[in-house]
Design goal:
By secondary structure, the chain is of the alpha/beta class. The protein has a single domain (4-229), classed as 2-Layer Sandwich (Nucleotidyltransferase, domain 5), CATH 3.30.420.10. Helices cover 45% and strands 16% of the residues. It has a 5-stranded mixed beta sheet with strand order 3-2-1-4-5, with helices on both faces. Strand 4, helix 5 and strand 5 form a beta-alpha-beta unit. Helix 6 packs parallel to helix 8 (184-204). It is globular. Residues 223-231 have low confidence and may be disordered.
Amino acid sequence: MIDFLNIRKNRAMQQDPDMNIGDAAYVVIDTELTGLNENKDSIVSIGAVKMIGGSIELGQSFYKLINPETALTAQSVVIHEITPSDVSEKPHVSSVLSGFLEFCRTDIMVGFCVSIDMSFLTRAAKRSLGTVIRNQVLDIFPLYEWIRNRENRKKQQGVSLPHQYSLYDIAKFYDIDISSTHNALVDAYITAQIFQRFIPYFIEAGITSVGDLMKLSGRLKGGERQTVSRGIYNF
């Protein structure tokens, strides 16, 4: 049996930089948290959905509730509606993370303000499993800003991308259903649908390979912490 977590410790988990972004493997992720303080809060649930290029693999999803390492707060319960009784008999994050990392494999991780999710996941992986998450990561938030700024420069008639950058504001613009939110799997699926809409923009702009997309992502400033203060990211 392959020790997948041990492999992770020894090499980067990356897609071929020459692969077309329409053929690459992605895993779109989301977490629900007890709060946003990395020193005091912890993960309550993890959701993820697979994509191959712009195709969402509906049969390839991951969702687990977790018995958090820190107590649920009244504020967090109001947001994601996960109560202490919902998680009291659920597994510890260490056993959930093992399955989650196997699900992700070498896929490019995609999320909205994803550095927040990744900071909690990385911390938990180091503490619980002694491993490092080495997957390439893309953040929907700065990619949306890039698309919005590009469309504004082109001054196309009828294009009016929203100035508000919350996940749900962007989803509304693309006519994506948000009738059910603040569930890690549902929000991952919403994020996947947004990313699905982005891929034609990148290709039309000449960003066609995984390497091109990662270079673009590396040049952008995510502003994840600012999104928290502006109320764009909810846990």
